[in-house]
Amino acid sequence: MSDSQPAKIIIFLGDGLGDRPVPALEGRTPLEALATPHLDRLAAEGLCGMLNPVSPGRIIGSDTAHMAILGYDPFKYYKGRGPFEAKGVGLEVLPGDVAFRCNFATVDGRKLVDRRAGRIKEGTDQLAAAVNEKAGRIDGVQCLFKESVEHRAALVLRSDCSQSAAGLDHRITEVDPHHEGVDYPDCAPLPEAASDPAAQRTARIVNEWVRLAHEALAAHPINAERVAESLPPANAALPRGVGTAVDLEPFAHKYGLHGAMIVEVDLVRGLGEYLAMDVIDVPGATGGKDTDEIAIAAAVVKALDDHDFVLANIKAPDLGGHDGDVEQKMAAIAKVENAVGYLLEHLDFTQTVIMVTGDHCTPITFGDHTGDAVPAVFHGAGVRPDDVQSFGERPCMHGGLGNFTGEDIMNLLTNFAGTQLKFGA
Ligand code: ZN
Ligand code: ZN
Question: How does pLDDT run across 159-208, given as a tens digit for each residue?
Fold first, then answer.
């Protein structure tokens, strides 16, 4: 390694940034149609390519994408979404635990009326406390429930370490039917675990927890108030996304870098917690389309004072993609552009290297994630520029990096930054 000071590293992600041609934009993508002088400057001075976070065409979630981008193979390490959500809200997930994401929902009998209980925003901490009081312990199993943002929550089941207990098993079905107007089902062991005592026990505990949680919630004064105000009551909590504890090598250990994460989604925050990175809260980072992107960019600059590496993610573009709303997605991409402008103004890019990309594509014509490659640009210290002059899906296909995968990212960045150790003599 040379004697020169290693550069600081930033991964800046617009969640779901990539897209497909949009008829209303005369066949351009939102990123191509929007004027993005700062992103274009990165491209003109930097090195572009197309990122396949896992492999070409593979459709992934934000959690698995972030794992791949940080160099942790999700097919090896991913054990379901529940543990990340639980970690993200501050619940421990220990070996042997089973963890879920949950929604506060509105039910009528067993019929699911509103999957998000009117996107309830207030009082969920009190509702969760009432659930824990009534259903905090079932048949030798601790049931730890905690609210997240809006209607979201997480549940961790932890079995007592008694010899007689069968333990817990994650091979069970979901309780959330994902569709309104239908009855929510009982939890049951998956076919392959139908005769497994631990899976049977876990399903039984989940069903009892759902029943007790419903009783506690239906009787809660907050819900009486909601009904009086003609709002849907949060009278049920429905578990899904079951998973078990994951065992990931800490980021600092794997790369020798002191890393921070500035992300708006609990799920990805949970990954940061698992990797023992510093997960930084930013006031004004709402995770919604109203998020304060300058506050996020300022937090990145500040974090670089005492970290070698920062990963930041603005969630908004993904929301526009899921909503199939061109205007919304373009407004969200404009936030990424503004944030990049702030970074260009406030950082010395002879001492900093940045990659800007997305964790996956969420095309507005599709309304969900696709396996299309995501445009990506590397800029700053150590980066050898190519001929690409603007940032977008088509231009980046001509980039000097060509197609690359998540596994390559930390190698590329640590190579540019001068922090990578030579393999061989
Ligand atoms: Zn995402
Ligand atoms: Zn998404």
Answer: 987 555 679 999 999 999 989 999 999 999 999 999 999 999 999 999 99
- Cβ atoms 177, 185 nearer than 8 A: yes
The distance in angstroms from the start CA to the end CA of the chain is: 12
pTM for this entry: 0.85
Residue 146, pLDDT above cutoff 70: yes
Nearest ligand atom owner, CA of 65: 1
Q: How far is the CA of 311 from the centre of ligand 2 (A)?
A: 18
* Domain harbouring 33, CATH code: 3.40.720.10
Domain that holds residue 412: 8-78+248-417
Do 281 and 387 belong together in one domain?
Answer: yes
Are 105 and 237 a contacting pair, CB within 8 Å? yes
Vertex 405: Cα angle to 401 and 406 (nearest 5): 120
If asked whether residues 137 and 187 sit together in one domain, one would say: yes
Q: State how far Cα 189 lies from the chain centre.
A: 27
User: Based on the domain organization, do 41 and 127 belong to the same domain?
Assistant: no
Mean of pLDDT over the chain: 95
- In the reported structure, the alpha carbon of residue 18 is separated from the centroid of ligand 2 by a whole-number distance in angstroms of 11
Ion ligand 2: residues, Cβ under 5 Å: 318
Per-residue pLDDT band at 425 (split at 50, 70, 90): confident
Q: Which two tokens stand for residue 363?
A: 């095309």
- Closest ligand, as measured to the CA of 17: 1
352-389 per-position pLDDT tens digit: 999 999 999 999 999 999 999 999 999 999 999 999 99
C-beta neighbour count of 57 within 10 angstroms: 10
Of 211, 244, 277, the last residue of a domain is: 244
59 C-alpha to ligand 1 centroid (Å): 11
Q: How far does the centroid of ligand 1 lie from the alpha carbon of residue 15, in Å?
A: 4
Q: Are strands 352-357 and 8-14 parallel, antiparallel or unpaired?
A: parallel
Ligand nearest to the CA of 268: 1
In a domain, 422, yes or no: no
Q: Ligand 1 centre and the CA of 208: distance in Å?
A: 33
Per the structure, the count of domains in the chain is: 2
- Does residue 116 form part of some domain? yes
What spacing in Å lies between the alpha carbon of 141 and ligand 2's midpoint?
A: 33
Check residue 90 and report its DSSP letter.
Answer: T
Check: CB of residue 226 under 8 Å from CB of residue 203. Answer: no
Spatial distance between the Cα atoms of 69 and 71, rounded to a whole number of angstroms = 5
25 and 142, same domain (yes or no): no
pLDDT confidence of residue 143? 98
Q: Tell me the C-alpha to C-alpha distance, in Å, between residue 368 and each of 15, 107, 229, 246, 330.
A: 12, 26, 34, 26, 16
